[in-house]
């Protein structure tokens, strides 16, 4: 007997959102870890809203805000507007965020404004650290063997926005290297940002009118683009990201960020005299960087660069067994960059300003850690079942 093609909607339902999510869904272990981390941040969230305690309309709960931002990373959602659209009808998203079926979805502009409060209080950094503490409790971190690397992040700004700074520079760029000097050429450059053929442009004389923090930068054989530079410090045991930061793009940013991150790792050590190792590629083989590592009691397992020069890495270090292990393990850091760019949307970031870019980069790396930790937990359960 053929069933009737009717559209009958129930006025009431006795089912919970949790009933619609399969028990084996990959978001379940991630949500559990996320809620554990957010529970530890309650004091921070209370301080964030102390100024509003006297009254006013309740804002978006910061816990829900962070869960929603994390979903945007995990599911490669392009924008807040598209995210809010998904939350409107996607029961899985509502369940993860903590919204009921009857709760109204936020206006995208309100969501974006509330996200700025997280930047002011470094809430995403705190969330990243709490996720890392969960990994540490489960013994997924070595705490003494690290790798460092950097990657380019394309800014949300184009070449046409890269204009000469101010009006004081009319008639040349002040360095004598302009190929199209003179008042007429300068006026032409201001009126037509896309007509930059034959001009000498640099970050000293030009800046983006769209994103003033973006820098024109190229690395290796890549073309010059308006970019930022993201840096991570990964733990060699399972490749989890132990630190992440975004800086302006320049030729010294990688080594400077590496020194700051490895110093943070050193400060986090319970025993300050314990030696730690740091793996890196040939770009970090500079005498100043090697000496800085040694001053922090960090053994520099940096790949030697002997292309027409002598390496700053001591031969005694390069011949050690630990050095060979670090060179193999440091490649795990590329997995984090690859995930961040293909899944997390960090190939070309869709926010402007270094603070917002840094927030999204740190949150993306926290998302990567959560995915890796879910896999590690599942592998541990399989081993446990095999042992029995």
Written account of the structure:
- The chain has 15 helices and eight strands.
- With 388 residues, it is an alpha/beta fold.
- Helix 2 crosses helix 8 (123-137) and helix 2 crosses helix 15 (354-387).
- Strands 1, 4, 5, 6, 7 and 8 form a six-stranded mixed β-sheet that branches. The chain has a two-stranded antiparallel sheet with strand order 2-3.
- Helix content is 44%, strand content 12%.
- Helix 11 (287-295) links the parallel strand 7 (276-280) and strand 8.
- The chain starts with 16 loop residues before the first helix and ends with a helix.
Please give the largest β-sheet. 6 strands, mixed
Percentage of helical residues? 40-55%
Number of helices: 15
Strand fraction band? 5-15%
**Average pLDDT, to the nearest integer?**
87
SS elements, strand count:
8
Rg over CA atoms, rounded to whole Å, is 25 Å
- The SS-based structural class is alpha/beta
Q: What low-confidence regions span 5 or more consecutive residues with pLDDT below 50?
A: 167-191
């Amino acid at each position: 007997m053929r069933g009737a093609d009717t559209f009958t909607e129930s006025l009431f339902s006795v089912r919970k959102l949790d009933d619609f999510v399969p028990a084996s869904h990959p978001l379940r272990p991630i949500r559990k870890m996320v809620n554990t981390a957010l529970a530890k941040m309650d004091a921070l969230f209370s301080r964030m809203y102390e100024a509003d305690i006297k009254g006013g309309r309740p804002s978006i709960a910061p816990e829900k805000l962070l869960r929603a931002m994390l979903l945007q990373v995990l599911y490669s959602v392009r924008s807040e507007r598209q995210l809010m659209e998904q939350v409107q009808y996607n029961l899985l998203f509502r369940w993860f965020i903590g919204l009921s079926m009857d709760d109204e979805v936020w206006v995208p502009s309100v969501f974006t404004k509330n996200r700025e409060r997280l930047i002011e209080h470094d809430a995403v950094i705190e969330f990243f650290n709490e996720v890392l503490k969960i990994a540490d409790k489960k013994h997924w971190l070595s705490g003494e063997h690290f790798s460092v690397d950097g990657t380019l992040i394309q800014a949300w700004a184009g070449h046409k926005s890269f204009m000469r700074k101010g009006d004081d520079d009319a008639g040349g760029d002040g360095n004598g290297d302009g190929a199209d000097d003179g008042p007429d050429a300068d006026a032409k450059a201001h009126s037509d940002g896309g007509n930059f053929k034959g001009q000498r442009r640099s970050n000293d004389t030009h800046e983006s009118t769209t994103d003033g923090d973006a820098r024109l930068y190229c690395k290796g054989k890549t073309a010059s683009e308006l970019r930022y530079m993201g840096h991570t410090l990964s733990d060699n045991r399972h490749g989890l990201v132990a630190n992440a930061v975004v800086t302006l793009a320049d030729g010294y940013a990688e080594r400077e960020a590496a020194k700051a991150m490895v110093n943070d790792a050193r400060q986090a050590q319970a025993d300050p005299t314990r030696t730690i190792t740091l793996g890196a590629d040939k770009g970090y083989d500079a005498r100043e960087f090697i000496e800085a590592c040694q001053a922090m009691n960090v053994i520099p397992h940096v790949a030697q660069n002997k292309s027409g020069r002598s390496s700053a890495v001591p031969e005694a270090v390069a011949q050690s067994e630990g050095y060979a292990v670090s060179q193999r393990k440091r490649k795990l850091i590329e997995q984090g960059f690859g995930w961040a760019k293909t899944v997390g949307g960090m190939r070309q970031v869709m926010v402007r300003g270094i603070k917002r870019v840094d927030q999204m980069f740190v949150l993306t790396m926290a998302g990567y850690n959560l995915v890796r930790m879910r896999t590690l937990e599942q592998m541990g359960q399989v081993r446990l079942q095999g042992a029995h």
